[in-house]
C-alpha cells in the first residue's frame, strides 16, 4: 500500500461546520446554521435569467475574463471612487480562488489580520509561504494594527522571512465591524513604508448597514500597491455560482502583478465559468433591480444582526457595535466563571455546547486565528431568513422582518440559548 | 513604487497562443486556430437545457460536489470497468483545477511525461515541487517509459529529491496516441515498486477513434494508488463551463488522499459551480443522446485528424498513427535541411513561420517539455469544424465531413502550407 497522504492544511472551518450541520439536519435534528456566512436568500430572478440565457457560452474565452465582465467590474469600482482600467481587472472562479492565486503570484509570506477569515492563512501555506498573524485593534476589524504590522514585519525580516503582502478585510469578517478611514490610511502608509502589496478583500463593501457611511479602501491611500477583490457571493447570494473579480493597481508594479496573476490563473483554472461571467457582467453593471436587491439584503442583514446582537448583549456578552455584514463576534468573558463551573473553558468547548444543547452551529475564535482558544465566537445571521425561497423573499420584502414568525423564532432561539448560559448557577 | 512581481510560472502556452490568435482574428487577419485543444462544437441542446434549469442552485453544497454528481461519476467509471464508490469521487471546477489540487494534496515532486501537457510541470512548481521529466517511448503517448521512470526516481531520491507521484495521460495529449495495455501495466508496476501515486489524466478516454479498442487505465493494475481524472471539456465541448471529477482509490491511502484533497479544495475553491454540477450529473449518467453526441464527435475528430495527418505525411512529416483525440504531433526532421536553408532551425521558429506565412496557429514541441527545440509541432484539429454553430452541427451530422466546403478548405490550407515547406528549394 502507498504511504498515506497527510493533508497540507485543515479543511475550511466554515465549510466543515456546514457539512456537520447538514448531516445533523438530514438525521432529523433541529439545527440553526450560524457557522458559515453563506447567504440564505433566493437568487434575483433577473440575474438567474441572465445565467439561463448564457448557457450556450461554452468557450474558455480570455484567461482574465470576458471584456464585458471586466468593463462592468471597472465601472463598479469607478462608481465607488476607484477609477479602474478594465485591463487591470482579473476575473476568477470566486474571490477565494483569486486571493489564493494572488498569494501564489506575489509569493513570500503574507501578513494576515487576527481575527481574520479562516482561509487566508491556509492559502498562504498552500502558496508556499507562512502567514504572519498581526492583531486587529478592537472595533477596527480586518485591518492589522499598523504599528504592530511594522514591528512584526521588521522582526520577521530580521529573522530571514520574506513578508511581501498584507491582507485586510473591509468591512470585516468575522467581526462585522468596519475599520475607520484613519486606520485604513495608516495601514496603507505602513504598507508603503514596508514595501508590502496590500490585498484588500472588499467582498462585504456594499453590506455596510448605513449606506451613507461607505467603507474606505487602502486603494485610495496606496493606489500603487493595492489589489482589491470582490464577487457576487455576499451581495447577491450566489456563492454556489463561483465568480469573483480583482482590481490590480495602475503603473508598472500593477502590470507585472497582472501578468503574474494571469499566468497563474492560466495554469490552474484556465478561465472563470463562461455562462456565469455573463451574469456577473450584468450584476456588476448595477441596473436598478440589482441595486434594489442589494439594498434590501443590506437592510435585512442589519435588522436581524442587530436584533441578535441585542440578545447577546442582554445575556452579558461583550460586542462591538455591528455596523456591517451578517456577522457577530461576541466575547463571553463576562460569563467565564459560570461557564468554567460547567466545564466550558474556551470558545471551542462553548461552540460544541451550543451545538449539542441547542442545535446552534457557530465557530470559535480559534477558527479565525485567535490564540489560546478565547471565549469568543462568530455567529452568522445570514441563514435565519427562512427555510424556503418564499420565506426568504418575504423577509426581504417585509417592512419589519423581525415580525415574521420564523425569524422571530430563530432570534429567540439564539437569545434563549445565551440567556441559558447567563443563568448557569 | 513596490518591487515588481516576477511570474512564478509562464502563461499556459495553449491559452497564450489562443489569445494571440484571437487578437489577429479581431484585426481582420485570416487565422486557422490549431494551437489549443478547445473543441469547436456547439453544446448538446439537452445539456444546455439542464444548465438553464439549474440556475436557481446558488448554495455552495458539499466541497467535493453534490451526491448526484458523485453518483453519476461513479457510474461512469463503473461502466468502464473501474467500480467506484461515490464517496471516493471529488468534483472540482475543471479537471485542470483538480490536477493542481492533487499535486498540492500529495506534495513533493511529480514525474511528468515528455512530451506532455503544458500545465503538469507548471502546476507542480506552483504546488511547491519540481517536475521530474521522463521521456515517453514512441507510440506510447502519455506514459513515461517504466524503465526510465525507475532510473529517474532512484536518481532523484539519491539526490535528496522527493518524487511522490507520476502523471500519465491516456489517451495522450499532445501525441494523439494511446499507450498499449502492456505499457500501462508496466508503468503501474513501476509506480508500485517506487511507492508513487499514479495520477491518470483520462479526459480523452472516450475519444479513441475505434470504440472497440478502449484505452487501458493504470487504475486496473495499481488500484490502491491510482487517481483518475476526467471532465466534460473534451467529450461534450463545454470547456468554458469548468467542471471535472477525480476518482480516488479505495482503502486507507485513498481515504487519506480524499481527505487531503477535500481540505485543499475547501481552502482554494469551496465547491464546483453548483448549476454546472447538475448538468455534469446529467452528462455523466450518459443518457442515449449524450452517448450519441460523444460518438458523433469521436467520428468527426477521427475523420478530420486522419485527413490532416495524411496531408502532413504526404508532405514528408513523420507521424505515429493517430488513434485518438484531435491532436497530431508531426516530426519535421525529414525537412530539416530545407527548413534550415531558410533560417528555420527548430520547432519554435517553424511555429512562427506557419503563423506568419499561413495564419496557422500551432505549438512547438518545446511547449510540451521537449528539450532542444526539436522540429516537432502539435496541431489540434478540433476547431476546423466550422465558424458557426450551424456549420459545426452539420459537421457532426455529415456522413463525410471532409466533403463540407469549410472543412475541405481548412484541411487543404494546412496541407498546402506543409506542401510549401516540403517544396522549399
Automatic annotation (TrEMBL), chains A, B:
GO terms for biological process: amino acid metabolic process. It holds the Pfam family Aminotran_1_2. Keywords: Aminopeptidase, Aminotransferase, Hydrolase, Protease, Pyridoxal phosphate, Transferase. Gene3D superfamilies: Aspartate Aminotransferase, domain 1, Type I PLP-dependent aspartate aminotransferase-like (Major domain). Residues 33-380 form the Aminotransferase class I/classII large domain. One of its GO terms (molecular function) is pyridoxal phosphate binding. It comes from the Bacteria. Its cofactor is pyridoxal 5'-phosphate. Belongs to the class-I pyridoxal-phosphate-dependent aminotransferase family. This is Aminopeptidase. It comes from Streptomyces filamentosus (Streptomyces roseosporus).
Amino acid at each position: 500500500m502507498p504511504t498515506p497522504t497527510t493533508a497540507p492544511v485543515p479543511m475550511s472551518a466554515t465549510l466543515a461546520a456546514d457539512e456537520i450541520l447538514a448531516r445533523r439536519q438530514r438525521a432529523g435534528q433541529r439545527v440553526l446554521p450560524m457557522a458559515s456566512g453563506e447567504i440564505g436568500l433566493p437568487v434575483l430572478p433577473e440575474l438567474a435569467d441572465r445565467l439561463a440565457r448564457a448557457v450556450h457560452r461554452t468557450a474558455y474565452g480570455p484567461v482574465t475574463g470576458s471584456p464585458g465582465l471586466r468593463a462592468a467590474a471597472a465601472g463598479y469600482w469607478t462608481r465607488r471612487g476607484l477609477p479602474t482600467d478594465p485591463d487591470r481587472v482579473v476575473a476568477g472562479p470566486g474571490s477565494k480562488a483569486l486571493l489564493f492565486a494572488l498569494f501564489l503570484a506575489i509569493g513570500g509570506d503574507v501578513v494576515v489580520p487576527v481575527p481574520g477569515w479562516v482561509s487566508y492563512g491556509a492559502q498562504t501555506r498552500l502558496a508556499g509561504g507562512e502567514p504572519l498573524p498581526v492583531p486587529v485593534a478592537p472595533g477596527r476589524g480586518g485591518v492589522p494594527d499598523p504599528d504592530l504590522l511594522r514591528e512584526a514585519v521588521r522582526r520577521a525580516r530580521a529573522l530571514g522571512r520574506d513578508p511581501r503582502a498584507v491582507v485586510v478585510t473591509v468591512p470585516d469578517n468575522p467581526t462585522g465591524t468596519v475599520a475607520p478611514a484613519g486606520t485604513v490610511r495608516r495601514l496603507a502608509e505602513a504598507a508603503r513604508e514596508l514595501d508590502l502589496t496590500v490585498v484588500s478583500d472588499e467582498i462585504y463593501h456594499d453590506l455596510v448597514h448605513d449606506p451613507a457611511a461607505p467603507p474606505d479602501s487602502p486603494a485610495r491611500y496606496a493606489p500603487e500597491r493595492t489589489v482589491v477583490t470582490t464577487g457576487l457571493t455576499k451581495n447577491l447570494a450566489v456563492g454556489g455560482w463561483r465568480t469573483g473579480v480583482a482590481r490590480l493597481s495602475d503603473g508598472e508594479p500593477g502590470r507585472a502583478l497582472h501578468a503574474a496573476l494571469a499566468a497563474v490563473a492560466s495554469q490552474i483554472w484556465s478561465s472563470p465559468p463562461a455562462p456565469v461571467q455573463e451574469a456577473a457582467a450584468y450584476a456588476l453593471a448595477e441596473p436598478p433591480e440589482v441595486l434594489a436587491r442589494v439594498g434590501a439584503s443590506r437592510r435585512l442583514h442589519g435588522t436581524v444582526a442587530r436584533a441578535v446582537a441585542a440578545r447577546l448583549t442582554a445575556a452579558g456578552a461583550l460586542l462591538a457595535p455591528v455596523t456591517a455584514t451578517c456577522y457577530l463576534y461576541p466575547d463571553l468573558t463576562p460569563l467565564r466563571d459560570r461557564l468554567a463551573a460547567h466545564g466550558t473553558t474556551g470558545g471551542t468547548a462553548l461552540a460544541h455546547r451550543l451545538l449539542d444543547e441547542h442545535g446552534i452551529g457557530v465557530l470559535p475564535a480559534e477558527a479565525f486565528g485567535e490564540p489560546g482558544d478565547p471565549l469568543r465566537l462568530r455567529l452568522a445571521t445570514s441563514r435565519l431568513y427562512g427555510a424556503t425561497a418564499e420565506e426568504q423573499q418575504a423577509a426581504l420584502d417585509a417592512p419589519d422582518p423581525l415580525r415574521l414568525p420564523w425569524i422571530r423564532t430563530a432570534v429567540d432561539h439564539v437569545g434563549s440559548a445565551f440567556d441559558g448560559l447567563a443563568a448557569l448557577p
